Amino acid sequence: MEFDLIVKSRRSARNFTGEHVDNKDIEKILYSASLAPSAKNRQPWKFYVLSDEQKQYIMNMLFEWDKQNRKERTSVKGTAEQIEVADKMIMIYSDTKKEPYKKPDYISLGCAIENMSLEAVNLGLGSCILCDTLYIDKEIDDYLGVQDLEQICGFIIGKPIYNYPKKARKDLKELLIN
Ligand SMILES: Cc1cc2nc3c(=O)[nH]c(=O)nc-3n(C[C@H](O)[C@H](O)[C@H](O)COP(=O)(O)O)c2cc1C
Predict the structure, then answer these.
(1) Using a 6 Å CB cutoff, which residues line ligand 1?
(2) Structural domain includes residue 52
(3) What is the H or E stretch that residue 155 is in?
């Protein structure tokens, strides 16, 4: 697909057909992440590709958290519903612990995650970045046995159905400071 079209058609996928995503596509998406720029080439990204069972377990943990914390009015329930219909989910981590590297390494992770999002579009797939997992990051990491890494987000992938309106974007004029 042409680059312009990939960038313009990327959206956060919130609904999916239920079609199976090939493991080869997951590998391509992770390979694209590995090509991203990173501060001092530290490549701080780490990935945990969840099994169906693990994805389901984390989804249930989020539904449960939402039930216990309704008053907080978060988007956690909607996020859990997205996980339910997505075929695959990856947990994304940073292996950077020391200051002052953390900030540049968050930027590096953002670059890698955007590469993943764009590669998904290139493959005819859709994805969504999920930071709502951070409400229960410790619980997720304990469940997965992940230690000594900082959880950044979840990332779901599937064959998308875009049956909702596009998000509005700020005008370029609004973005310029000078
Ligand atoms: C850092 C980050 C965290 C996000 N976390 C969530 C999330 O937890 N749940 C969710 O449904 N969407 C999440 N999103 C998706 C945003 O809601 C979405 O990117 C935004 O509304 C713009 O829509 P678009 O991606 O379709 O252009 C996240 C996006 C980013 C960049």
Answers:
(1) 11-12, 75, 78-79, 82, 128-132, 153, 167
(2) yes
(3) strand 150-158
